[in-house]
Amino acid sequence: MPVMFFIHAGGFYTMSGRSDLVGPHYLLDRDLV
Fold it and tell me: InterPro entries annotated for this entry (predicted)?
């Protein structure tokens, strides 16, 4: 069974911990998952 996981980049990488900036929405919005 395939499994996909998301590694959060963290606040120091993108200067924010907001989930809309570093969340999995890119993959979900494009039906890649």
Answer: AB_hydrolase_fold (IPR029058)
